[in-house]
Every structure is written in structure tokens, then in C-alpha cells.
Amino acid sequence: KYEKPDGSPVFIAFRSSTKKSVQYDDVPEYRDRLSLSENYTLSISNARISDEKRFVCMLVTEDNVFEAPTIVKVFKQPSKPEIVSQAPFLETEQLKKLGDCISKDSYPDGNITWYRNGKVLQPLEGVVVLIFKKQMDPVTQLYTMTSSLEYKATKADIQMPFTCSVTYYGPSGQKTLQSEQAIFDIYYPTEQVTIQVLPSKNAIKEGDNITLKCLGNGNPPPEEFLFYLPGQPEGIRSSNTYTLTDVRRNATGDYRCSLIDKKSMIASTAITVHYLDLSLNPSGEVTKQIGDALPVSCTISASRNATVVWMKDNIRLRSSPSFSSLHYQDAGNYVCETALQDVEGLKKRESLTLIVEGKPQIKMTKKTDPSGLSKTIICHVEGFPKPAIQWTITGSGSVINQTEESPYINGRYYSKIIISPEENVTLTCTAENQLERTVNSLNVSAISIPEHDEADEISDENREKVNDQAKLIVGIVVGLLLAALVAGVVYWLYMKKSKTASKHVNKDLGNLEENKKLEENNHKTEA
User: How many helical (H) and strand (E) elements, i.e. helices and strands, does the chain have?
Assistant: First the structure.
């Protein structure tokens, strides 16, 4: 039997020691749930909360009735606790509901505990507020426990895990179930503003686009700012970026940005827009006459030190060109190129195409072949544009076409003919360009008549070699003269020293002779 709360008995099962049969009373709540074994063990299947009561085993004999009671306790493990109704974010310095920790279907009821980073959260006025409640299902008689947490967050709570646990009782004692972690986004106000320049402010040049980016260290970061441009007291409201296009050098200055609702929180940066100006004078195509002077200047104006390189016909020059007296070899394409150090892409260049013109100049030379069978006549021509050369024989007027010409280099070249004249002739060399026509003649004796050869024209390259050889010879001569001078000085010093020594020797010898004469006189006197 079991006892009702008021103490009245309810019989549920009977078994006789003499009969094998078992009798079950018609008790609805235990219908089909009871089993009484031969050793008088009562089993209840599908335990319910309502089974928690006082059961009594009665032994009935002819003489007496014996009773042995027991109290049955029923336990139900709750569900794993969950943090529900989680706040999308927490704000610093504001008490806000973080969430609810809920655990269902427990018997008996349990307790819920909150944790921050594994440490128990204790109630603290204005910082940690815990509200606990439990509900029992009238049908199942199981409990649902709920604990709400209100929490004032700080920046230290960024990425901090929050958990909760339920503590309940089972047949073996107290047990605990832990929830999953919950991490909350912590909102906090901006405390500092910074400004960035894109691209890097060390490499901004005229024509670039500049993007100013303003950042606040709050969460969430501010979405709008005020941007202050150089010389403009009023800020420009914009998102966290502000772009200036095609900047010029006058955009150099201090740029600032601030919060819209807190203008005192401001950041600034200095920007230099680099520039590079180049002026070449003269420039373009310039035509000058040989021997003229031509000053050339390449003027640079830049925001910082710039490198300057001169090129002539794609070959780098050691220094800037300057012409006090132009030569044909000075003609060419000159380029003045400058670049700003550490500023990529900032380069300027100007070019000068120099043309050196000159009227044709002629010099004729002749040379007899060592065999004596022919003579070589050369017409050396100088001028620009390139003069055309024509050979004629004076008198007959016939033109000589079988000639040999050298390459035209630096305004010079020559035309050469080889003849074997049987009689004296006069050869005429005519050189003509757009500026003038020049004529020169040379008398050539017959091959049978010996004559003095004229020296060939020395080329620029050979002239330089001759000059180098002359310098070498002068250097050797000067060296020999210096050596002779040094030898002469040494010899003079040696002779001077020798004469002095000779005088001392003669003086000593004279003294010896005088002493001998005195001794002889003394001997004579004594005798």
C-alpha cells in the first residue's frame, strides 16, 4: 500500500504465501505499472513524479500484522542549460540585459549560476543583477529554471566568454551541467581620432588623387566625420574618407578631421604635394653657324632636391653642355632630364636639337706612290649640310668620276683620286652645299717629274693622338730638365764641400813645413 498526503492508505498489490497468484488492486495511476515477485519485491515501471510517496510492505498473519515503510524519491535530470535572448551587443557604462539562462524538465528544481571567463558572477548593485525564477508544469510536475543577467560591460569584456550552469540533485548526489560559451560585441565610444593619407604622403605629386581617411577607435567606429582643408575654417561633412582629385602644389598644407558631435577630438597631418618644373633654353630645333657661341641653360624648380642628367644622342654627358665656339661635332640631339628623388613617376625632360651649319672649306693634298707610277690627290672638305664634291681637269673641263670617298663624320670627309699624268695638269675640286659653292685647284706635275708631296690633312682622332704624343714628349723633356737640375745642384754641393776640405788640408801641410824649418834653424843655432 501507499499513503496519501492525509495519511489514508491505498492498497495496490497482494500476494499469498500459499497461492502463487498475485492480486493487484484497481488503482488507475498504477495500472499496468506494478509487478510483485515471488520474493515479495514490488517493482514500478515508468516512474513518475507522483510515485514520490511513502510505500508500506505489510505482513499479515493469523495473529498479527507487521508493517515496514519506505519513502521513494524520484529524480529527473534537467536539460543542458542554454543562454537565450542574447543581447546583440553590450555597451560600456550601461546596465543592459545580457540574456537568459534556461534549463528545463528538472525534478526537483535546481539552481542556476552565471560565469564570466570561468569566474562566478556575484550580484553587485548597478553592475551585476540576477533575477531567478522557476516554474512547474502542472501536468508533468517538472521544473523549468530561468536566470536573467543584467550586466554593465567595460572594454575589458571584449572577447570575454560568458557561461551559465545548472546545479541539480540525483540519486548519487549533487551534479552540474554547463552551457556553451557566449561572446558579446562590446560597444564603446571613440576616445581617439586618427587620420591617414592614401597613397603614402611621402610620394604625392601634382596630378595625383589624395584620399584622406579618418578613423575613430570606438566600437562601432564612427561613420561620418568633418574634414578641414588648408585655409578653410569650416569642416566638410563626409563618410570616413574624403578624396581630392588632380591636386596641385597649392594643396600643400595641414589636413584635419574630427568627430561630428565632438569637434574637440581632432587629428591632423601635413601633406606636401611634390612638383618639378624644367625649363631648357634654348629648346627645340636650333640652327647655328660654326664658330658661333651658344649658351645653354637647364633650370630646375622642385619641391625637394632633384637629379639632373644630360644626354647627347642617347649617351650620358659628364656635365652640362656649353658652347663658346661651335664645331660640327657639337651638333646632335641634347636632352636635359630631371627626376625627384623618392617620388616615383615625377620626371621631366626637354630636348634641344642643335644643327651646326658651315660653308664648304677645301684643302687639297698630293702624294706620289713609292713606285713612282701614280699620284694620289685628296680633296679634304669640311661643311654642313654635307657638300657635294666634283673633280675636274682645268683646261679640258672633263669631269673625273672615278673617285673614292671617306665616311662623312663631324662635318668632314674627303674625296680621293689616283692618276698617272704624262704631262703637267691642274686639278680642280669643287664643294657645294646649300650655303655656298667653293672651288680649289692644285697643280700636279707629270709622273716623270719629281715634286714635293703635301702632308695629308690630320683627322680629329689623329690630331688628338698627335696632341697626346706632344704632351708626352713635353712631359719627358721637362722630366729630364728637372733631373739635370737636381744633378747639377748635387754636383755643386759636392764641389763646394771638396774645395773647403782642400783648403783645410793645405793649411795643415803649410803648418808642418813651417815647423820643420823652425826645427832646422834651432839645430843650426845649437851647433
Answer: 1, 40
Domain 193-271, architecture per CATH: Sandwich (2.60)
What DSSP string describes 62-95? SS-EEEEEEE----BPPPPPEEES--S-EEBT--
Query: Exposed e or buried b for every residue in 325-348, given b needs 16+ CB within 10 A?
Result: ebebebbbebbbbbbbeebeebeb
Q: What string of DSSP letters covers 108-146? A: S--EEEEEETTEEPPPBTTTEEEEEEEEE-TTT--EEEE
What would the CATH number be for the domain defined by 2-71?
2.60.40.10
What are the residue boundaries of the structural domains of the chain, listed by start?
A: 2-71, 82-187, 193-271, 276-356, 358-444
Sign of the torsion formed by the C-alpha atoms of 510, 515, 517 and 518: positive
pTM, 2 dp: 0.58
90 touches 98 (CB < 8 A): yes
pLDDT digits (tens, 9 = 90+) for 441-471: 999 888 877 776 665 554 444 444 434 454 5
Residue 251 to residue 272: CA distance in whole angstroms: 8
Tell me whether the CATH fold assigned to 82-187 matches the one assigned to 193-271. yes
Residue type, 36: L
CATH fold of 276-356: Immunoglobulin-like (2.60.40)
Q: Report the Cα–Cα distance between both ends of the chain, in Å, rounded.
A: 193
Averaged pLDDT for residues 413-434: 92
Which band of pLDDT confidence, cut at 50, 70 and 90, is reported for residue 182?
Answer: very high
Peptide bond into 370 cis (omega under 30): no
Superfamily of domain 358-444: Immunoglobulins (2.60.40.10)
Q: Are strands 119-120 and 22-24 parallel, antiparallel or unpaired?
A: unpaired
10 Å CB burial of residue 507 (0-12, 13-18, 19+) is exposed
pLDDT tens for residues 349-372? 999 999 999 999 999 999 988 888
Asked whether residue 212 carries a pLDDT value surpassing 80, the answer given is yes
Which of 53-67, 207-221, 398-412 comes out lowest in average pLDDT?
398-412
**Cα distance between residue 311 and residue 303, in whole Å:** 24
Annotation: CATH topology of 82-187: Immunoglobulin-like (2.60.40)
Residue 506 has pLDDT above 90, yes or no: no
